[in-house]
Design a protein that fits this description.
Blueprint (H helix, E strand, L loop, with lengths): L3 H8 L19 H8 L12 H14 L11 H13 L2
Helix pairs in contact: 3-4
Length: about 90
């Protein structure tokens, strides 16, 4: 038997999942990387430069043995390595 209350609960929209905190000790606490994990406009794109990009490069070299420069510049080489890692770790 269905009650009006049960119908309201089943029709209620499900809340959006909460963003997952960054798990890597290399990334945790970096404001730019934290933002990129939860916000599309904050994603790191080609042309980005800084310590946050160097951390991404370092993680790629440590975790996937990628041979890229740790120069802090997100160029085509880093972008290709990120795409490769995403495909590998799906």
């Amino acid at each position: 038997m269905s009650t009006p209350y049960a119908r309201v609960l089943s029709a209620a929209p499900k809340p959006a999942p909460l963003p997952m905190a960054l798990q890597s000790k290399l990334f945790r606490g970096d404001p730019k990387l934290e933002a990129a994990a939860v916000s599309d406009p904050a994603h790191i794109t080609i042309g980005a430069k800084g310590e946050h990009v160097r951390k991404i490069q370092q993680a790629l070299t440590l975790l996937d043995s990628v041979n890229i420069d740790l120069d802090g510049a997100y160029g085509p080489e880093t972008a290709a390595a990120v795409l490769q890692a995403k495909t590998k770790h799906r």
